[in-house]
Amino acid sequence: MSSLNGSICNFIPSHYGSEAYIEVLCCGYSSKNQVKKMEAGHHDLSKVTVVGDPQLLQRKIDAVRLAGTAKLQVIADFDGTLTKYFVNGRRGRSSHGILKQGNAEYDDKRQALYEYYHPLEFSPTIPIEEKTKLMEEWWGKTHNLLIEGGLTYDAIKESVASSAIAFRDGVVELFEFLEERDIPVLIFSAGLADIIEEVLRQKVHRSFKNVKIVSNRMVFDNDGRLISFKGKLIHSLNKNEHALEMAAPVHDHFGDGDGPINDNASVKKRTNVLLLGDHLGDLGMSDGLDYETRISAGFLNDNIENNLSNYRKAFDVVYLNDAPMWGVVKLVSQMCSTDKMSGNDKSSGITGGAGAAKAPGSGSTGSVSGFDSGATKDGTMKAPGQDVRISREGFEKNPAGYFRDLQKK
After folding, report:
1. How far apart are CA 228 and CA 357, in angstroms?
2. Which of 103, 173, 220, 386 makes a 20 to 30 Å CA pair with 43?
3. Quick one: which of 139, 196, 193, 164 has its CA closest to 86?
4. CA distance 316 to 293
5. Catalytic-role residue among 53, 62, 77, 169
6. Residue 254 within any structural domain of the chain
7. For residue 130, what are the domain limits?
8. Which of 53, 79, 169, 282 is catalytic?
9. What predicted TM-score, i.e. pTM, was given to this entire model?
10. Is 157 within the bounds of a domain?
11. Region for 102 from its dihedrals, namely left if φ exceeds 0, alpha if ψ lies in -120 to 50, beta otherwise
12. What CATH number is associated with residue 156?
């Protein structure tokens, strides 16, 4: 325990409370317990939030805010990032894992492919060029089995309806916040776009004009039977902005006649990026984009003790234990702030002012736990979902409470 304690204290701001943090990590504080507390309304983000370099994150937030929302886009992984890792106390299913063809023979064949190729995907000894060919081979064989096995769209709907898949608390509110500000969201997935759309349809029950899905898209005949796949094959090693031509707006499939807010060319001009992922490989989703500033948020859902060091080095901010999306909602509100800054009086308050806690070993102040607001007393922001302005400080203290109250109106 002492060696682990030392490693934590090298990068956790002192007001986090290293003892509380170690409790989350090592003392029987399970992910399921954390989820239950948060679902009960106790959104103490400080205990599930890790920032390795507070000053760097602050500089990035400032740069994005100064550039304005017209330069910002959000890139998000789907499985384990937008969706929960645990559902009802058990491991949630992925968008690929929930699919049942209605043909047991072909379901078994796809499972056999998974058992063969999945270890190769994460093998540290296979060169990336060879691994890329193996992934193309795996995805191609899987897609062929779906066609040969007679997959229907009705089977997709039934698979989603009976699945253990759910969005993180705060995802819908995040999408709404971004939609109001015309900020595009690209959902990158090596899975199946049609399944992701059906999950959105059944679990969220609404569309978002700013959301596009970059994933493998199916082509069905008039009887709803899968006959082919459209365009470029997207697998786990090439899901990035090079595949942007595969992007399609979700609302086109919800009967919304309005056009997308941003075409693909204009998305590429948005050179500030908020990237959301749950694997280190997800950081490659922004490859192909000549970005100016990228803020990366990683969800470390399991095996925290072994992975935290690598995650906090790779991501600007890490959320632990299957945390809800409220931390990202707060982060986005800071990135979209129009409050003027002067010196240390910054609306996000990560670098803080007088009296801010000092990050051990950094030699500088840093108020990071939950991104406590340091906005001026009269700092306001546009209220999400309303044509009024509200206190930014009040919103950032409890975004979940704001949206909960809004739904009651």
Report:
1. 57
2. 386
3. 164
4. 12
5. 77
6. no
7. 104-161
8. 79
9. 0.72
10. yes
11. left
12. 1.10.150.340
Q: Residue 407: helix, strand or coil by DSSP?
A: helix
* Residues 4 and 21: beta-carbon distance below 8 Å: no
Q: Residue type at 53? A: D
77 a catalytic residue:
yes
- Residue indicated by tokens 């995650």: 311
- Tell me whether residue 120 is in a domain: yes
Count the domains in the chain.
1
Q: Do the domain assignments include residue 115?
A: yes
Helix (H, G, I), strand (E, B) or coil at 221: coil
Q: Distances from the Cα of 95 to the Cαs of 192, 251, 257, in angstroms?
A: 7, 19, 27
Name the residue type at position 45: L
Ranges of beta strands (E only) in 164-286 are 185-192, 211-220, 226-230, 248-249, 272-277
- Angle, CA 376 vertex, CA 371 and CA 378 arms, to 5°: 125
Q: What is the 3-state secondary structure (H, E, C) of 51-100?
A: CCCHHHHHHHHHHHHHHCHHHEEEEEECCCCCECCEECCEECCCCCCCCC
Whether the Cβ atoms of residue 196 and residue 187 lie closer than 8 Å to each other: yes
β-strands 317-320, 226-230 pairing = unpaired
What pairs with residue 72 in β-bridges?
272
Residues 6+ apart with CB under 8 A from 15: 357, 367, 369
Please report, in tens digits, the pLDDT of each residue of the chain (409 residues total). Answer: 333 333 333 333 323 333 333 333 333 333 444 434 444 444 567 889 999 999 999 999 999 999 999 999 999 999 999 999 999 888 888 888 899 888 899 999 999 999 999 899 888 899 989 999 999 999 999 999 999 999 999 999 999 999 989 999 999 999 999 999 999 999 999 999 999 999 999 999 888 999 999 899 999 999 999 999 998 899 988 887 666 666 666 644 443 434 444 466 677 789 999 999 999 889 999 987 889 999 999 999 988 999 999 999 999 999 999 999 999 999 999 999 874 443 443 444 343 332 333 333 333 333 333 443 334 445 777 777 777 777 777 776 777 777 767 666 6
